[in-house]
From TrEMBL:
Gene3D superfamilies for the chain: N-(1-d-carboxylethyl)-l-norvaline Dehydrogenase, domain 2, NAD(P)-binding Rossmann-like Domain
UniProt name for this protein: NAD(P)-dependent oxidoreductase
The enzyme's E.C. designation: 1.1.-.-
UniProt organism field: Nonomuraea marmarensis
Source taxonomy: Bacteria, Bacillati, Actinomycetota, Actinomycetes, Streptosporangiales
Similarity comment: family membership: Belongs to the HIBADH-related family.
Length: 287
């Protein structure tokens, strides 16, 4: 159970994470390419390393929170990782995370990849709902789970190093769809007398009520029966899409955020699946 940690990268996220460890009494060595961003942390007890090489040498547990995978490669190019535990919480793709894991193993380090499900203000606040997906070395995770749980809760999602990034990106992708829907809805309401704040409350209530849709999809995928428990079938929904599109037209709002999903629903209907929900769209996406 180490109390010594090195943090590489003090952007908004790296700084929040470093602060959480400092206030929990961990002995921190930090390094940032732009040293002025590291300096404020010295008053909170952090030691600044002159180089990334020195920073890595200072602790057995090394945490990288950099911009992207390329910057991780650059920063650690000359570092001696032999015997180190490298935790990389830089956002990446599953493929790049897997490559980075092999690269780390080749240099004698145990490797854990992380995907942060939080924004910086949520870090260190254990009631915020913040957590980090981790995947990779189970031994590394077991050895440092207490330390890792200080900035945010932890969710270990398997030995495959790419798993954390895949979970992270899958959730962010779902969020992107939600952002698209919210954008379209506000566009429809623009120019009306409804205050955006008032409409936001309705949106939150509705989206929350609709969120269990994911359970229905899961049941379809698990049973292979895409009609199971369907109360709004595809035939009816494609019909309703027409109303959504005509309303967009009436309100002078482009349908471009809605159309791609609707097109897939229509294709699935045309394939003869009018009694299903929307789960069949997933099959159309796989290539
Ligand atoms: P910032 O843009 O605030 O910081 C980026 C960090 O990367 C800085 O420390 C920067 O150094 C460093 N950096 C960038 N390029 C290089 C390079 N070539 N060599 C050395 N250092 C480099 O980003 P965040 O701190 O917000 O994000 C860090 C990671 O956390 C990212 O992978 C991000 O996706 C992830 N994350 C962030 C969230 C957020 O809300 N902020 C949410 C979830 C994940 P310098 O100061 O010198 O520019």
């Amino acid at each position: 159970n180490t109390k010594k940690i090195t943090v590489l990268g003090l952007g908004a996220m790296g700084t929040a994470i470093a602060r959480a460890w400092l206030s929990a009494g961990y002995e921190l060595t930090v390094w940032n390419r732009t040293v002025s961003r590291a300096e404020p942390l010295t008053t909170e007890g952090a030691k600044i390393a002159a180089t990334a090489f020195d920073a890595v040498a200072a602790s057995d547990l090394v945490v990288a929170c950099l911009l992207d995978d390329a910057s991780v490669g650059e920063v650690l190019a000359d570092a001696d990782l032999m015997g180190k535990d490298l935790v990389n919480i830089t956002t990446s793709t599953p493929g790049k995370a897997g490559d980075r894991a092999e690269w780390a193993a080749g240099r004698g380090a145990r490797y854990l990849d992380g995907g942060i499900m939080a924004v910086p203000p949520m870090i260190g606040d254990l009631d915020s709902g913040a957590y980090v997906f981790y995947s990779g070395s189970p031994e590394l995770f077991a050895a440092h789970r207490d330390a890792l749980a200080v900035p945010a809760a932890t969710r270990y999602v398997g030995e495959d190093s790419g798993s954390a990034a895949l979970h992270d990106v899958a959730l962010l992708s779902a969020m992107t769809g939600m952002f698209a829907g919210v954008s379209h809805a506000f566009a429809l309401m623009r120019g009306t007398e409804v205050a955006p704040k008032e409409f936001a409350a309705l949106l939150i209530e509705w989206l929350t009520a609709m969120a269990p849709y994911a359970n229905g999809v899961a049941a379809h995928l698990e049973t292979g029966d895409y009609t199971l428990g369907v109360t709004s079938n595809l035939e009816m929904m494609v019909e309703a899409n027409g109303t959504l599109l005509r309303t967009a037209e009436e309100q002078g709002v482009s349908p471009e955020l809605l159309s791609p999903f609707m097109t897939l629903m229509e294709r699935r209907l045309a394939d003869g699946h009018g009694d299903e929900g929307t789960t069949g769209v997933i099959d159309l996406l796989l290539r």
